[in-house]
Amino acid sequence: MALPHEDLHDKIAPSILSADFARLGDEVRAVEKAGADMIHFDVMDGHFVPNLSIGIPVMESVRKVTKLPLDAHLMISEPARYIEAFVKAGANSISVHCEVCPDIPAMAKRIHDLGARASIGINPETDADKVLPFAEHLDMILVMSVHPGFGGQEFIPAALDKLRYIRRELDRRGLSIDVEIDGGVKLDNIADVKAAGANVFVSGSGIFGKPDYGKIVGEMRDLIAQTHQP
């Protein structure tokens, strides 16, 4: 029987896209010590999004320095070609975008068969109803609150309405599924996204580059804990 969404654990997921790559291992260890729940790993191919980022060798390196779950966000045009390699490199969950996934149940099954959690991402301009009919196959739905491809963008407020709609529909169907928000999440809006229905909070520049990771993660966690969803 599905748990009510209130029983889903809140999770803070620093996005290493905003970390100092010259000292990436130290950065990952620092956010783990600060109390992060998982590491968000953005993969860009220069095709699905207009930028390139990190790939499998970097994930293998990150896996060696942390025990935290690694959340691989594949912003790429042909995700099916790389899912197995990312799981083997250490990914605990795989997010594939619905815009390049014509068969969501089949994609979720493949990810599950490889031993990872299955997630589907939704770009700001994409309707949530493209994913919700297949929600029972998923462990998580990822809502983009910026246009994917670049770190440091401002949060798109319309994402809050999408979060509310998704959480309401999941609750209506009795589905206990993580809802992840990714893009522009910082201290000044993390309570709003929690209230709207998210329980997994990706933050890049909102954490990395700050003088005290423990302080910022602790403040985020306090704001989340003080905020209740309807």
Q: In percent, how much strand structure appears in the residues?
A: 15-25%
CA-CA gap between termini: 21 Å
CATH architecture: Alpha-Beta Barrel
- Helical stretch count? 7
List the secondary-structure elements in sequence, H or E: EHEHEHEHEEHEHEH
Low-confidence stretches: none
- Secondary-structure-based class equals alpha/beta
Share of helix, binned:
25-40%
**Average predicted confidence as pLDDT:** 92
**Which fold does the CATH topology refer to?**
TIM Barrel
Gyration radius, in Å: 16 Å
- Spell out the CATH superfamily: Aldolase class I
Number of domains: 1
Descriptors:
230 residues, alpha/beta, TIM Barrel, eight-stranded parallel sheet
Molecular structure report:
The chain has 230 residues and is of the alpha/beta class. It has a single domain, classed as TIM Barrel (Alpha-Beta Barrel), CATH 3.20.20. Helix content is 31%, strand content 18%. An eight-stranded parallel sheet has the order 1-8-7-6-5-4-3-2. The radius of gyration is 16 Å and the shape is globular.
